[in-house]
Every structure is written in structure tokens, then in C-alpha cells.
Amino acid sequence: MDLAQLTSDLDALRDRALAAADAAPDTAALDALHLEVLGKKGELTSVLRGIGALPAEDRPKVGAAANEVRQTIETALDTARTRLGGAELEARLAAEAVDVTTPGRPIRRGSLHPIIETAREIADVFAQFGFVVYEGPEIEDDLTNFQMLNIPLDHPARDLWDTLYVDGEGQLLRTHTSPGQIRVMERERPPIRALLPGRCFRYEAVDASHASEFFQVEGLMVDEDTSMADLKGLLDQFAHAMFGADRPTRFRPGYYPFTEPSVAFDILCVICDGAKCPACSRTGWMTILGAGMVHPVVLRYGGIDPERYQGFAFGMGVDRISNLRHRVADLRLYMENDLRFLGGFR
Ligand code: 2NL
Asked: Which residue puts its alpha carbon closest to atom 17 of ligand 1?
């Protein structure tokens, strides 16, 4: 092996590579050629293996010549790639038509959750009677959530609220928004017309009609000469605004520790109109909320003199109102946030 031989091998390699680049049918062939000639185990590397046999003074000359050959081949490959790539693109554009009439992907517009929407509808009705929306904390203390509502520590009525407790002495997740009403009484002087919407929590075995989280709206009115008649008139107006002016209503006796007397408020079943279907447990009626005259003890806890003022309060599960308005059977659907369900309310 001598300098002349190596130089002529390099020249031959270059000429062959340039011819192959010119003749390549497509860019894939160029990729293969690149690997074959210039790759780590390619022909150029093979030729240069001979360099070791040369006298030391000739080696740099071969090195320089080899670099030049590499450069030349790379340039030829690039030129061929530009030519072939352009042709391939032209061919694709000709073959693959774009249908400009295909409808675009629609951007889905957001909307309020049906529970929030219903809570706002409820608030809109009571706003017409002067009720103002307040909010209270979701983490409450035992005192405000229970004791000030006339539910002492060892009272059997505690069984009505299966409570979720939070780390911290006497801290819990509110079981109703009533503690928010207590806070309103403490802060405001009568006349009071307050509406308390909010998320509440109970320790429940979850099924179609029980969730561990639910949304409640409570109302409270305190003034001089506020009576049961005012409560009945207001709730009738509410039911008619929500379920139609001709929807029959009725009041039944009820029990809550924080109201006396207490009532349950029913509307004629929206499914069967009183024909006693399974949806109303064959009673013909559906309870939509509980209410009553605020217990004097609770007024006093709230800093209000029960000799001078009376009050009524009511509370409803928003989920329930929403179900009746939209005829939804399973409460759990609201929590799953499946857009196929939520989208049905638009
Ligand atoms: C229901 C029944 C009710 C109240 C809530 C209340 C609040 C205060 C004082 C007295 Cl501060 N009462 N709230 C009264 C009666 C019934 O809720 O079944 N809710 C889902």
C-alpha cells in the first residue's frame, strides 16, 4: 500500500458515490448510500484503514484528501436530497387531496354545573323577596354546627347527622349550612333576610340518593312579628316559581331541634301528579325542604332577643331540587363530572 494507491482508491470511491447519489431513485436510497459510504463501518473508513501502512510524512496528505472526499460526497448527497425531497413532496401533494370542506373540530364551550345553576336559580327567587346571599366556612366547630343550634353534645338528635371530623379539637366538616346562619345572626341586627348556599358533608354509605357531599341552601328571616304565615306564603311563592304556578303544595308537621314548630314542605309529585308512583314512594307528594320557626334558644345563642324578634328558617338539598326540575334519578351523576351527563343541561 502506498500514497498513490490510496489516493486513487479515494478518488474511485468519490466517483462511485457521486454517480450513485445522482442515480438514487428516492431519499430512502440516499439514506442507505450515506450509511454505506460515510457511515462508521462504511467504505471511506475501510479505505482509510490503509493509512497505517504509509510512511509518517504521507499520512497527513491522505487525511486531507479523505476530508475533501467526505465533504464532496456530503454536498452531493445534500443536493440530491433537496431535489428528491421536493419531488416526493410534490407527489404527495398531488396524491393526497385535502378536503377543505371537512368541518373543524368544535371548541366545547364551558357551562355551569347543574347544581350551581340550580342554587343560583333558588337564590334568584329569594332575592326577589329581599334575601341576601352569605357564605360560611366548610370547616366548622362543634359549637356553631351543633350546640348553638340546640343540639347538645349528648343529644340523641346527633344521630341525624353522621358527621365527618377533622383533626383539631372540636373541628368538623359542616353537616348543614345552618352554622353560617348562626354567624349571620351574630354579625347582623334584625331585620335579617339571609340565604346560605354551600357544600355540606356527611358520613354516608353512598347510593343513588345519598352522597357524602351535597349542596344545601338555607334561608333565615328574623324580624318583629315574623310568623308561620310569612313562612308559608314565602315557600308557596318559591315552589310556584320553581315548579310552576299551578303546582299544588302542602305543609306537614316535622321535627328539627333548631325550629319549633317544624314543618316539611311538599309539592305534588312532578312525575305522577299525585297518582302515587314509585318516584314519590306512592304518596303522591314529594318533600322539597324542611322549615320552621327558629327556636327561641337558637335566637338567643345568636344574640337576638326572642321576646322582641321571631324568625323562620328553611333548608333544602339543591341536588334534590335539581333532580326534580331535571328529572334525574341518581345523585351520583352530579359528582362524576362526566361531560356526557353535564352537557345534557345546556
Ligand atoms: C333540611 C331542613 C332546615 C333550618 C334548616 C335553621 C337555621 C338556623 C336556625 C333554625 Cl340558624 N333553623 N335551619 C331549619 C329547618 C330546616 O333544613 O332538610 N335541609 C336539607
From this structure: 315
Supply the pTM of this predicted model: 0.70
**Sign of the CA dihedral running 90, 96, 97, 101:** negative
CA pseudo-torsion sign 224, 185, 218, 164: negative
Atom of ligand 1 nearest to the CA of 315: 17
Q: Which atom of ligand 1 is nearest to the CA of 290?
A: 2
Residue 331 above 70 pLDDT?
no
Pocket test for ligand 1, best of 176, 215, 288, 295 (most atoms within 8 A of CB): 176
| Kind of pairing between the strands at 192-201 and 171-173 | unpaired
Q: Please give the backbone phi and psi of residue 332, each rounded to the nearest 5 degrees, phi first.
A: -60, -25
Is the Cβ–Cβ distance between 274 and 268 less than 8 Å? yes
Measured distance CA(254)–CA(160) in Å, rounded: 14
Give the span between the Cα atoms of 192 and 249, in whole angstroms: 26
pLDDT digits (tens, 9 = 90+) for 103-123: 888 888 888 888 999 999 999
- Measure 181 CA to ligand 1 centroid, in angstroms: 9
Task: Report whether 195 contacts 126 (CB < 8 A).
Answer: yes
